[in-house]
């Protein structure tokens, strides 16, 4: 049975390789209760043949959370999806948007946009293997120099017709399979939000989530006039406190946003527990995701410097997080719980 009590995907944090691991997701979940979180892309083969804990372990209290898989073999994806379901993921997402040469060599990622029938087979196999999870897809608006809307509509239309997938996450720019690095592929091809809006108009029954270049709450609110949800990537990583108001603004939940002091305390407790649990976790694995937290505050530079200093990190003492916080606390006026100048 699919869990129908989950919040809608009005807001989500994008899957980001090396960035949205379970430590980042833990931090994000302290800031927003309802936003959907996505893992990094995990290769289906790694899940099947590797150490499943290494790739699938997540924290309690992290849901709603989606695992993103990379692959193009329906049976492999099905096996990986079954394992993921057992770890408690709410959704399994298939990557059809990554343009990296390594991924192209494996014939998955963005090049799957040329193979809608194969993608349909993949999604159906995943859904059969993980009937309690939502199975969704993340893709681009096109490949290479294609500028027409119709191939995008055909891709979505084929999947809508041949699968039970109803959620489409659309990074609103093309993937250029040659000539651009993955990083350039996130900036250079022009954004076409109008194509994503048109998808929603032409497929009103589908849940259409827009992604790409979205940075502020005003921009999010504007997109939500046209589509069902907004996925934010880089801004949520470099400025995680952006998410502090999302429950109130976009989910109608008026609980008080987490204060900086409270958040820092929770992160310190989490780090202590993770270090005690072993599994090879060191303080740097967590602290590196905290660097953007003080974005825009006085003392943010000290915070970043202390939490990225190899010598300071070496003893794996979680109190380092508190010591770095003291620098920020001293430099700002938090008398009303929020720093002066913010809000
Ligand atoms: C460091 C990094 C890693 C990424 N890894 C993935 C990934 O594993 N899977 C995926 O679908 N997209 C990945 N992306 C793309 C993002 O999910 C998102 O589509 C893209 O960054 C555009 O959104 P933004 O402008 O809000 O960042 C990655 C982006 C970044 C910056």
UniProtKB/TrEMBL annotation:
Instruction: Give the InterPro entries listed for this entry.
Output: Aldolase_TIM, DUS-like_FMN-bd, DUS_fam, DusA, tRNA_hU_synthase_CS
Q: Indicate what this protein is called per its UniProt record.
A: tRNA-dihydrouridine(20/20a) synthase
User: Which keywords, in A-to-Z order, does the entry hold?
Assistant: Flavoprotein, FMN, NADP, Nucleotide-binding, Oxidoreductase, RNA-binding, tRNA processing, tRNA-binding
Give the enzyme's EC designation.
1.3.1.91
Q: Which Pfam families match?
A: Dus
| Protein's organism | Neisseria elongata subsp. glycolytica ATCC 29315
**Binding sites annotated in the UniProt record for FMN:** 15-17, 68, 138, 171, 211-213, 233-234
Name what cofactor the protein needs.
FMN
Record family assignment = Belongs to the Dus family. DusA subfamily.
Q: Establish whether keyword Transcription is in the entry.
A: no
């Amino acid at each position: 049975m699919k869990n129908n009590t989950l919040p809608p995907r009005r807001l989500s944090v994008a899957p980001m390789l090396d960035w949205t691991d379970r430590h980042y997701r833990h931090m994000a979940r302290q800031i927003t209760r309802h936003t959907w979180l996505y893992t990094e892309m995990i290769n289906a083969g790694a899940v099947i043949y590797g150490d499943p804990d290494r790739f699938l372990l997540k924290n309690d209290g992290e849901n709603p959370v989606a695992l993103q898989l990379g692959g193009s073999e329906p049976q492999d994806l099905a096996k990986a999806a079954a394992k993921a379901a057992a770890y408690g993921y709410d959704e399994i997402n298939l990557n059809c948007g990554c343009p990296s040469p390594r991924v192209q060599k494996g014939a998955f990622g963005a090049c799957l946009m040329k193979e809608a029938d194969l993608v349909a087979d993949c999604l159906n196999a995943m859904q059969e293997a993980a009937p309690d999870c939502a199975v969704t897809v993340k893709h681009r608006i096109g490949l290479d120099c294609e500028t027409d809307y119709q191939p995008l509509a055909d891709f979505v239309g084929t999947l809508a017709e041949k699968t039970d997938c109803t959620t489409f996450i659309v990074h609103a720019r093309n993937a250029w399979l040659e000539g651009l690095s993955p990083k350039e592929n996130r900036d250079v091809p022009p954004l076409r939000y109008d194509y994503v809006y048109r998808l929603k108009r032409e497929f009103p029954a589908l849940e259409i989530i827009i992604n790409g270049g979205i940075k502020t709450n005003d921009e999010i609110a504007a997109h939500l006039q046209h589509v069902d949800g907004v996925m934010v990537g880089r801004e949520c990583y470099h400025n995680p406190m952006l998410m502090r108001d999302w429950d109130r603004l976009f989910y109608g939940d008026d609980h008080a946003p987490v204060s900086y002091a409270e958040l820092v305390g929770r992160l310190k407790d989490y780090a202590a527990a993770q270090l005690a649990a072993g599994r090879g976790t060191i303080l740097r694995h967590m602290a590196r995701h905290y660097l953007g937290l003080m974005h825009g505050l006085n003392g943010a530079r000290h915070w970043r410097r202390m939490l990225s200093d190899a010598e300071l990190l070496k003893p794996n003492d979680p109190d380092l997080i508190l010591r770095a916080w003291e620098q920020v606390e001293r430099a700002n006026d938090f008398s009303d719980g929020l720093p002066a100048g913010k809000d």
